[in-house]
Design brief:
heterotrimer, A mainly alpha (307), B mainly alpha (325), C alpha/beta (249), A: 307 residues, mainly alpha, 11 helices, 2 strands, 78% helix, globular, C: 249 residues, alpha/beta, Rossmann fold, 2 domains, 4-stranded antiparallel beta sheet, 10 strands, 25% strand, Branched-chain amino acid ABC transporter permease (chain B), ABC_transp_permease (chain B), cell membrane (chain B), LivM-like (chain B)
Chain lengths: 307, 325, 249
C-alpha cells in the first residue's frame, strides 16, 4: 500500500513538474532574450483552458479542441506582444511588472465577461477516463499518463528546436547575449514576437491539459505564474534545461512535501506539533528552496553561459 | 528663498491634499457622509505603507515585490495579542515595528545579495512564505482570517474606536512618516542610498559598502510598513492572509509608481488616486449599465497600462513638468 | 621615498590567453607613475585587478603596507586608494557639489546620519567646494551633473577622487575622449597635485604622460618591458620597437 501511494505521488509530482515546465519554458525564454518580466504569462495558461473548453462543447472532441486551441492561444499571445509588450521591452523591470499586472486584470476581467465568474468544467472523452493498472495495487489514471507523455513530447520537441535549429541557435544566442544577435542583423523584433507567441501557446497547452482535472477558472494563471517564476529563478533565467530541471524539482518537492512532510516531522517532534507545522512548511517549501538556492547561487542553478 | 518660488502646482496640490485630508472628519460630519471617512482612513493608512515602500523603491532602487507581508505582519501583531486578550497599544505598535524590522533584517540580508529580477522574485518568495505561514495557522483563523474585536488601548481619552480620533491618529502618523522620510532622504544616509541606486560601481569605488546601507534602508522601510499594518489591523477589525498576497504587493508598487516614485509626497497621490478609482469606477460603470460595476478591473487594468506606457514619473512627475513650463 | 603600491609577479589569464604575465611594479610615495602600452597590452586587466574587479590567478598586491590582493574595492578605497573611471561614472541626478560631498562623506565616515539635512552641513559643503575649486568647477557647483560637458565630467571625476583624501589616485585614462584644449586643462589640474599626491596614471595621450610622469612603466603583451624616467623611456630601444610595431602615438 505504502509503495503504491508513493508511486502515485511521484507521478503526481512528475505531472505538476511537467505542467510547470510548459509554463516556465516560454517565461524563461521571454525573460532571457528580451529581459522582459511577464507576470501575465499565466493568463495564457488560463485563456488556453477557456478556449479549449469552449471548443470541446462546440466540437464534442477534446483532442480536436486542443489542436485548434493551441494556435488560437498563439494568436492571443501575438496580439498581446504587438500591442503591449513590444513597446516596453526597453523599459526597466518595474514598468514590466506594472504593465503586465495591468494585463492580468484585463485578461481576468475579459474572461469574466466572456465566460462568467463560474469555473468551466471540461469533460474528457471516455477513452481517457480509465485507469492503467501496473499491478494489483497500483492503478494510475490514464489521463495523467497522457499529460506526462504529451508534456515530455513537447519538452523534447522544444529542446530539439532550441538546440538543433537555426531559430533555436538565435534564441540561445539571444538569451546569453542580446547585442550579439542584433549585431548579426537579425530582425530581432520578429524573433521576439515568435518566442512570445509560442511561449503563450505552450503555456496555453498546459492550461488545456490540466483543466479537465481541475476545471478552468479565473485566477488559475495567477496561481501558477508565481510558481513558474520560482522555477525559472531556481533553474537560471534564460535556460530551457534549467527550466526543465527546476520544474521537476519544484513539482516533486511540492507534491511530496504535502504528502510526506508530516511523517518526516513526526520523527523529530510530537505528533501534534508535526501535524500543525507540516502543512505550513510544505506550502512554504518551494519558496524556502528558492531563497536557499539564491542565497548560495544568486544566478540560479544553470545560468546561460555568457552575459 | 523667494516666496513666489514656493507657489508651484505641485506645492499647491500637496497643500490642498493635506488640508482636505486634515479636515476629513469635519467635512464628512458636515455633509453627513461617514462612509467617506472610512475611505479616507484607508487612504491615509495605505499612504504610510506606500511612502515607506518608496524609500527603498524610489530612492534606493530596490523593487520589493513583497512589502504587503510587512503590512500583514503589522496587522497580526495587533490581532494575535488581542486574541490572547492583551489590549495595550503600547504592546501592539512596538511589536508590529519590531517584528517587521526583524523580518526585514533577516529577509533583506539574504535578498540584497541578489540584483534586478532576482531581487524582485526573492522578496516575493519571502512574502509568500509569510502568506502561507498565516494561511496554515488555524489557531489564528487560517485563510478564514482573524476577527479583531477590540482596538489597541493607548491613553485615556484617546479612544481608537472613535472614527474621528482614529483618523487623526492615522493622519498624524502619515505626516510624521512623510517628515521622517523627507529628512532621511536628504540626510547623509539618504544621499548614500540614492547614490547606490544611481551608480553602485562608483559608490564602491568611493569606499562605501553599499550592501550595509541598503539593508538599513530596507529595515526602516519594512518597520514603517509594519507600523502601517498595525494601524490597518485597528482599522479593519478583520484581518486575513489575503492582505499579504503578491497581488497586494503589486498594488502597493502600483500606488507608488502612479503617484511618482521620485518624490516623498508622490505615493500619497498614488494611493489617493488608486482608492478613488477603485471606489468610483464601479459606480460610474453601474450608471451606464446596471451590474456592469463588477467588471471594474477592466477599465482599471487599462488605466494601469496607460499610466505605465505614457505617464513618466507618475502624478508627481506630471506636476513637476507643469512647474517647469 | 617609500613604496606605496607594490605589485609582485601578478598573473591573470582568460582561457588560454595570458593578459597579465609576471607583472611586478612599485609606485613610490609622492611620485606620478604612468603606465603606457600599445592597445591590447593588458592595461585594463591590470587596472581591474588593482581595483578588485578581477582577481589575479597568482601574485601579490600590497598597498600602504597591507596585502590587498583579494580585497573588495570598498576596502581598498578605505585604505586610501581612489579611482577615476575611464568611462565617466558620476551621479547624474545630483549636483556637482552633491557628487563631491558624497565623496567627502565617504572619507569622513559618518554616513549613518538619518535626520540632519546633508545640504545644510556647512563643513561638508565647504570641504566639497574646495575640491571643486581645485579642479576649476566652483561656478558649476549647483548644476546637475547630467547637464555639464564631457570635459567637466572628467574634472568632476578628479574632484571626487581627491575628496576621499586618498593616499594614491588611480587615474584610468583621465583624458579619454577629450579634445586637445580640454586635455591641456586636465594636465594643468593634475600638475597642481604633482609631488603632493601619489598618482598611478594609465593614459594613451603621450603628451600628457610625458608632461606629468616622474616614472613610466611600459606594458607590452602583459609584461612590463621597462620602468624608467621619461627621458630614458623615450630613448629605450625595446620601447621604440614595441611602439613602432603598432603606432608611434
Amino acid at each position: 500500500m505504502e509503495s503504491a501511494l508513493l508511486i502515485t505521488q511521484l507521478l503526481n509530482g512528475l505531472q505538476l513538474g511537467i505542467l510547470l515546465f510548459l509554463v516556465a519554458a516560454g517565461l524563461t525564454l521571454i525573460f532571457g532574450i528580451m529581459d522582459f518580466v511577464n507576470l501575465a504569462h499565466g493568463s495564457f495558461y488560463m485563456i488556453g483552458a477557456y478556449i479549449c473548453g469552449t471548443l470541446v462543447y462546440l466540437l464534442d472532441s477534446f483532442v480536436l479542441a486542443v489542436i485548434l486551441a493551441v494556435p488560437l492561444t498563439l494568436v492571443v499571445g501575438y496580439v498581446a506582444e504587438r500591442l503591449v509588450a513590444r513597446s516596453i521591452y526597453a523599459r526597466d523591470h518595474l514598468d514590466h511588472v506594472l504593465a503586465t499586472f495591468g494585463l492580468i486584470l484585463i485578461f481576468d476581467t475579459g474572461v469574466h465577461l466572456l465566460w462568467g465568474a463560474e469555473g468551466m468544467s471540461i469533460p474528457l472523452p471516455d477513452w481517457l477516463q480509465g485507469q492503467v493498472a501496473f499491478s494489483s495495487t497500483i492503478e494510475v489514471p490514464s489521463y495523467r499518463l497522457a499529460i506526462i507523455a504529451v508534456g515530455l513530447a513537447v519538452a523534447l520537441g522544444l529542446f530539439l528546436v532550441v538546440t538543433k535549429t537555426r531559430i533555436g541557435m538565435l534564441i540561445r544566442a539571444g538569451a546569453s547575449n542580446r547585442t550579439m544577435v542584433q549585431a548579426l542583423g537579425i530582425d530581432i523584433k520578429n524573433l521576439f514576437s515568435l518566442v512570445f507567441a509560442a511561449g503563450a501557446a505552450i503555456a496555453g497547452l498546459a492550461g488545456m491539459m490540466i483543466s479537465p482535472i481541475t476545471e478552468a477558472s479565473i485566477g488559475m494563471g495567477n496561481d501558477i505564474i508565481i510558481v513558474a517564476f520560482v522555477v525559472i529563478i531556481i533553474g537560471g533565467i534564460g535556460s530551457i534545461k534549467g527550466a526543465f530541471i527546476g520544474a521537476l524539482i519544484v513539482g516533486m518537492i511540492d507534491t511530496l512535501g504535502r504528502s510526506y512532510l508530516d511523517q518526516l516531522f513526526k520523527l523529530v517532534m510530537s505528533d501534534q506539533n508535526a501535524e500543525t507545522a507540516a502543512p505550513a512548511i510544505s506550502a512554504m517549501l518551494i519558496y524556502i528552496l528558492m531563497a536557499a538556492i539564491l542565497a548560495v547561487r544568486p544566478q540560479g542553478l544553470f545560468p546561460p553561459k555568457v552575459r | 528663498m523667494n516666496l513666489s518660488a514656493l507657489i508651484t502646482p505641485k506645492n499647491l496640490v500637496t497643500a490642498a491634499v493635506l488640508i482636505v485630508l486634515g479636515l476629513m472628519p469635519v467635512l464628512t460630519t458636515v455633509f453627513d457622509q461617514p462612509f467617506y471617512l472610512d475611505i479616507a482612513t484607508r487612504i491615509v493608512i495605505l499612504a504610510v505603507a506606500a511612502a515607506s515602500l518608496n524609500l527603498i523603491l524610489g530612492f534606493g532602487g530596490m523593487i520589493s515585490f513583497g512589502h504587503a507581508a510587512f503590512v500583514g505582519i503589522g496587522a497580526y501583531a495587533v490581532g494575535i495579542p488581542i486574541y490572547y486578550e492583551y489590549y495595550s497599544g503600547f504592546l501592539h505598535f512596538p511589536l508590529a515595528i519590531a517584528v517587521s524590522a526583524l523580518f526585514a533584517l533577516v529577509t533583506g540580508a539574504i535578498s540584497l545579495r541578489t540584483k534586478g529580477v532576482h531581487f524582485i522574485m526573492i522578496t516575493m518568495a519571502f512574502s509568500q512564505m509569510i502568506f502561507f505561514l498565516f494561511l496554515s495557522l488555524e489557531e489564528y483563523g487560517g485563510d478564514d482570517g482573524l476577527l479583531i474585536w477590540s482596538d489597541s488601548e493607548l491613553f485615556d481619552g484617546l479612544a481608537l474606536d472613535d472614527p474621528s480620533t482614529f483618523y487623526y491618529v492615522c493622519f498624524v502618523s502619515l505626516v510624521g512618516v512623510l517628515l521622517l522620510l523627507h529628512r532621511i532622504v536628504n540626510s547623509r544616509f539618504g544621499r548614500v542610498i540614492r547614490g547606490a541606486k544611481s551608480n553602485e560601481k562608483r559608490m564602491s569605488a568611493l569606499g562605501y559598502p553599499t550592501y550595509r546601507y541598503r539593508l538599513v534602508a530596507y529595515v526602516i522601510s519594512g518597520a514603517l510598513c509594519g507600523y502601517a499594518g498595525a494601524l490597518m489591523g485597528n482599522f479593519t477589525n478583520f484581518i486575513s492572509p489575503d492582505m499579504m498576497g503578491w497581488g497586494r504587493s503589486g498594488e502597493l508598487i502600483f500606488m507608488v509608481v502612479l503617484g511618482g516614485s521620485g518624490s516623498i509626497i508622490g505615493p500619497v497621490y498614488g494611493v489617493l488616486s488608486f482608492l478613488l478609482l477603485e471606489e468610483f469606477i464601479p459606480d460610474v460603470m453601474d450608471l451606464f449599465a446596471d451590474g456592469a460595476g463588477v467588471y471594474w478591473h477592466l477599465p482599471f487594468g487599462i488605466i494601469l497600462l496607460l499610466v505605465v506606457l505614457f505617464v513618466r514619473g507618475g502624478i508627481s512627475g506630471f506636476l513637476n513638468r507643469l512647474t517647469k513650463r | 621615498m617609500s613604496v606605496l603600491l607594490e605589485i609582485q609577479d601578478l598573473q591573470k589569464s582568460f582561457g588560454g590567453v595570458k593578459a597579465t604575465k609576471h607583472v611586478s611594479l612599485d609606485v613610490l610615495e609622492g611620485e606620478v607613475h604612468a603606465i603606457i602600452g600599445p592597445n591590447g597590452a593588458g592595461k585594463t586587466t591590470l587596472i581591474s585587478q588593482l581595483c578588485g574587479e578581477q582577481m589575479p590567478d597568482a601574485g601579490l598586491i600590497r598597498f600602504a603596507g597591507k596585502t590587498i590582493t583579494r580585497a573588495p574595492f570598498p576596502a581598498r578605497a578605505r585604505l586610501g586608494m581612489a579611482r577615476s573611471f575611464q568611462i565617466t561614472s558620476v551621479f547624474q541626478d545630483m549636483t556637482l557639489l552633491e557628487n563631491v560631498a558624497l565623496s567627502v562623506q565617504a572619507h569622513d565616515g559618518h554616513s549613518f546620519r538619518f535626520w540632519k539635512r546633508a545640504d545644510s552641513e556647512t563643513a561638508l559643503n565647504e570641504k566639497a567646494m574646495t575640491f571643486l575649486t581645485e579642479v576649476g568647477l566652483a561656478d558649476k557647483a549647483h548644476v546637475l551633473s547630467r547637464e555639464v560637458s564631457h570635459g567637466e565630467h572628467r574634472q568632476l571625476e578628479i574632484a571626487m577622487a581627491l575628496a576621499t583624501e586618498p593616499k594614491m589616485l588611480l587615474l584610468d585614462e583621465p583624458m579619454a575622449g577629450m579634445g586637445s584644449e580640454e586635455s591641456a586643462r586636465m594636465v594643468d589640474i593634475l600638475k597642481k597635485f604633482k609631488g603632493e599626491k601619489t598618482m598611478l596614471l594609465v593614459e594613451h595621450d603621450m603628451d600628457a604622460v610625458f608632461a606629468l610622469a616622474d616614472r613610466i612603466s611600459v606594458l607590452v603583451y602583459g609584461e612590463v618591458i621597462a620602468t624608467d624616467k621619461p627621458e630614458a623611456i623615450r630613448d629605450n630601444e625595446a620601447v621604440k620597437r614595441a611602439y613602432l610595431g603598432e603606432e608611434a602615438d
